[in-house]
């Protein structure tokens, strides 16, 4: 098996019932939570065999065959270097937590392949000391926002706060409220989307409503209706990747500017919206050490506010 990289996590198993007849690249992606592209790369590198023979990505799995997969170790994530982040502001800070208003184009922490700014870099450059629990490149991170979603994020400064907040997010004890500008007018104007979310079958980085996905619940209510769009208040019961974007797209009312999920580029250009119109407007939780209920709110980014004014003028 020339070209094989025999490092990382090696697994052998009979072909599972649920993937019989599937293309190997699709099956590997589903079994190990990978993108279809990454699964195909692993197969091409010679890290997948069926009954001892190297597999091709278009082969189909047969019942009774013995499948062996070697998952190469993931590349190490870069560490966070202090660097100012223009547009990011601190909404609240005390000995245990810091709450920031994150601008678009900023991710929570360093990741492989991301060369832009991060929330961690901005805070470290301001001298904020964060909890060191968890992976080094994710210090203090207890939840995340998409790179182009704006608004409130809370980070832990003390180890005690980190443990309490991680558990609070996991147990759905945190109130997360978003405002989303979506295309058209949802019918009904107020409702709940209860639909499981998983990786899109195309394996291109998108997520979708899929059978067998993780349970996902989104509540929405129309705040203001315009000729071509609606401003919604959205509350999350769960916190799946791209959850609001996926559920709104499933209703055929994608977030304005969300080209990944089918938004109209003409409307986005007219409104001056360069990425999905989605803002984490309120965040409420029990303070991790003081025990009192705290709630934070932040205003829209200038670009988002300007687009609403333009719609109101229409």
UniProtKB/TrEMBL annotation:
Pfam families: PseudoU_synth_2, S4
One annotated GO biological process: enzyme-directed rRNA pseudouridine synthesis
Enzyme class: isomerase
Domain RNA-binding S4: 22-78
PROSITE patterns: PSI_RLU, S4
MF (Gene Ontology): RNA binding; rRNA pseudouridine synthase activity
EC number, as in UniProt: 5.4.99.-
PANTHER family for this protein: MITOCHONDRIAL RNA PSEUDOURIDINE SYNTHASE, RIBOSOMAL LARGE SUBUNIT PSEUDOURIDINE SYNTHASE D
Protein name, per record: Pseudouridine synthase
């Amino acid at each position: 098996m020339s070209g094989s990289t025999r490092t990382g996590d090696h697994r052998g198993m009979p072909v599972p019932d649920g993937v019989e007849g599937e293309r190997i690249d699709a099956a590997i992606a589903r079994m190990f939570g990978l993108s279809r592209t990454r699964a195909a790369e692993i197969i091409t590198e010679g890290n997948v065999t069926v009954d001892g023979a190297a597999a091709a990505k278009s082969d189909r799995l047969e019942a009774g065959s013995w499948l062996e997969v070697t998952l190469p170790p993931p590349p190490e994530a870069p560490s966070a270097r202090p660097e100012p982040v223009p547009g990011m502001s601190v909404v609240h800070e005390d000995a245990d937590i810091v709450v920031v208003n994150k601008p678009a184009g900023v991710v929570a922490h360093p990741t492989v392949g991301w060369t832009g700014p991060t929330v961690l870099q901005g805070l470290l450059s301001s001298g904020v000391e964060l909890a060191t629990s968890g992976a080094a490149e994710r210090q203090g991170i207890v939840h995340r926002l998409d790179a182009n979603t704006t608004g409130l994020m809370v980070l832990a400064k003390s180890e005690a706060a980190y443990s309490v907040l991680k558990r609070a997010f996991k147990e759905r004890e945190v109130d997360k409220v978003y405002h989303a500008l979506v295309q058209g007018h949802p019918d009904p104007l107020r409702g709940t989307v209860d639909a499981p979310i998983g990786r899109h079958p195309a394996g291109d980085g998108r997520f979708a409503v899929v059978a067998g996905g993780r349970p996902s619940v989104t509540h929405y209510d129309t705040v203001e209706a315009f000729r071509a769009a609606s401003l919604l208040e959205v509350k999350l019961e769960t916190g799946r990747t791209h959850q609001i974007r996926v559920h709104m797209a499933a209703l055929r009312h994608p977030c304005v500017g969300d080209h990944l999920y089918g938004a109209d580029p003409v409307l986005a250009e007219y409104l001056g919206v360069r990425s999905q119109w989605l803002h984490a407007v309120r965040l409420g939780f029990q303070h991790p050490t003081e025990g009192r209920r705290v709630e934070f709110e932040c205003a829209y980014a200038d670009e988002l506010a300007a687009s609403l004014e333009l719609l109101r003028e229409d």
